[in-house]
Amino acid sequence: MTKNYQTKRPRVATLEHEIALPESVNIAVAELAANVKEGLLALAVGAGLQVLGVLIEESVTAVAGPKGLHDPDRVAVRHGTEAGAVTLGGRRVGVRRPRVRTADNRAEVAVPAYDLFASTELLGELALERMMAKLSTRRYHAGLEPVGAAVQASARSTSRSAVSRRFVAMTEQALAEMMGADLTELDLVALMIDGVHFAEHLCVVALGISIDGTKIPLGLVEGSTENTTVVTALLTDLADRGLDVTRPVLVVIDGAKALAAAVRAVFDRPLIQRCQLHKIRNVEGHLDKATAATVTKKMRAAYRDPDPLVAQAGLEALARDLERSHPGAASSLREGLVETLTVNRLEVPPTLARTLRSTNAIESMIEIYRDHSTNVKRWRDGTMALRWCAAGMLEAAKQFRRVNGHLHLPALRVALDAHFADVTPACDTHEEEAA
């Protein structure tokens, strides 16, 4: 009598295939009894590990054919097992790793199911996610899901050093990703630049606003101060990565002269908007509390005036009033006064103007990644500051929404083009004389 298994030829597996999924999986309920007392998640993990074993076995069968059946045409054979590990909820858990080799025993053959679950990429992502959530390396294991005592006993890769190594690798990747991004296709309308201190290290960062209102972290550079050389290096890098520096752009800064000088050195047609809030705070610093309240009220009223000439006249009158009693405040108010009214002169609608009249947008991003790094007690070097800063900027970008008044950005582009169309002849003459 002829048996079916004698007439049916086993399926021949190739070296390239997808993970095999069995039609049904039998789970040993008795083995899960101990997990029931530890909760539903531990029970699910126990069942999942059993399913994983079946998936790996099916994957081996797909590569090497059914176990125990002779097949002269098979391209791979089973080669026993060895100790292995898979990634489970931010930890590594030990399993038996099947080995498969080519039929001629010359090379190891991958088992897709095992390779998928053994990948450590998820470990790095989880380490970055938890560290950005202000979970220290010492407390990393406390943020992991409970998986049952048996699984936890064999778990590894949750030590401080292991988590730290993965976090360093992921932040290095984040830094490389940001600093290597191609900016050729970016249609930039506005640019914000500011600095953030990490202990003794300063990172100068750039945030771009595209024509559709999207906020984009563009780059960063480490230095001792916000000097012209450091900022120029940052902006030159943006240009090297394809950012168009020939088109008119509105650049919002806090008022530092070094920032303005670097912007003018790199961009062909930048229009500077000094942060009005910084200007108000600078003036307040020269006044007593009672006088500061009155002056602040007048400055805010001037900045809200839709007529830039009236606003400028009001601020100059205020400076004259302060000249005798508070000369420091008067001098601070006059310094860069015209550049604090750039948005007013461009007739930017109020909704968009609230975004562009100050550096609040980039300072909000800075506060987000400064908050993420609150657990860091010792900044070893500038590279560490850059890594944390880049990771924080990308984390902050996940929370970004388009700027308020983004529908008016095309009108801002038109206003910028018109402004430089009016002043281009004068600028060209000045450059020729300087040359």
Brief account:
The protein has helices spanning 4-7, 29-36, 40-64, 112-118, 121-132, 149-153, 160-179, 228-240, 257-266, 276-284, 289-304, 308-322, 327-334, 342-345, 350-356, 360-372, 382-397, 409-434, and strands at residues 76-88, 91-102, 108-109, 188-198, 201-210, 215-223, 249-253, 270-274. It has 435 residues and is α/β, with parallel strands linked by helices.
Q: How would you describe this structure to a colleague?
A:
This protein is α/β, with parallel strands linked by helices and 435 residues long. The chain folds into two domains: 4-161, no CATH class; 184-429, no CATH class. It is built from 18 helices and eight strands. Strand 2 (91-102) and strand 3 form a beta hairpin. The longest helix is centred in the C-terminal third of the chain and has 26 residues, at 409-434.
SSE layout:
Elements: H1 4-7, H2 29-36, H3 40-64, E1 76-88, E2 91-102, E3 108-109, H4 112-118, H5 121-132, H6 149-153, H7 160-179, E4 188-198, E5 201-210, E6 215-223, H8 228-240, E7 249-253, H9 257-266, E8 270-274, H10 276-284, H11 289-304, H12 308-322, H13 327-334, H14 342-345, H15 350-356, H16 360-372, H17 382-397, H18 409-434
Parallel strand pairs: 4-7, 7-8
Antiparallel strand pairs: 1-2, 2-3, 4-5, 5-6
